[in-house]
Amino acid sequence: MAAKKNKLYSVITADIVKSSKLSIVKHKKLIEVIKKCGIEIQKVFPGSFQYTPEYFRGDSWQIVLKKPELALGIVLYYRAYIRANMKLSSMNARMAISLGTIDFIKKSFGVGEAYRISGEAVDIKGKRRLKFIYNESELSELLDLLVENSDFISSRWTVRQCQIILLSMKGYNQLQIARKIKVTQQAVSQQLDSAGWAVISRNIKNFQTIIEKLISPNNTSF
């Protein structure tokens, strides 16, 4: 169907880094983990996806978000989930968040600026793994800075830190996390501090606030 004219959409395009070096067994597990993460995200971030993610080339995927303001939290959840479930701190994905217009959309397939700039951004090689792109606002640079800072900090997350961060993003407090993974609350607090979670949390909230203000004149429903 035709998308609403001048309405802003967010598209996340993602691609696993160096997946060709994985064994067949690990590659199959990775695909399963990515798909399970998409299902779990819809529980942790209710109503965030307009449609289920589209998977292609085995280890790449694309999502149209109904709630663009949740994009940073979602890509960080993907990063933590994939590392925690693959049990590999080196496991990483390039993920590009776009904000733009869409001319046509049907289920997971769409055409328009939001799709184009997200796909182009994820294909740019470099040290950065998480990116934000929006061509129309002076705030784009600030939003990308929040994403870049979050990328830098979260790129160092260990498997254990990812396990704890996933529980924190689900709403568990430190005591509940400690009981669930059978460690002390102090150990949980130390892991969150080492992971830079306080800074990441602020980045997620600031990103959400700015995007909400940016899209407020637009109706975010289809």
Describe this structure in words.
- The protein contains eight helices and seven strands.
- A five-stranded mixed β-sheet has the order 2-3-1-4-7, with helices on both faces. A two-stranded antiparallel sheet has the order 5-6.
- Strand 2 and strand 3 form a beta hairpin.
- Helix 2 packs parallel to helix 4, helix 2 crosses helix 5 and helix 4 packs antiparallel against helix 8.
- The longest helix is centred in the N-terminal third of the chain and has 21 residues.
- The N and C termini lie close together (10 Å).
- The relative contact order is 0.17.
- The C terminus is likely disordered.
Give the SSE layout.
Elements: E1 9-16, H1 24-44, E2 54-56, E3 60-65, H2 71-86, E4 93-100, E5 104-106, E6 109-111, H3 113-123, E7 130-133, H4 140-154, H5 159-169, H6 174-181, H7 185-194, H8 197-215
Parallel strand pairs: 4-7
Antiparallel strand pairs: 1-3, 1-4, 2-3, 5-6
Helix pairs in contact: 1-2, 2-4, 2-5, 4-8, 5-7, 6-7
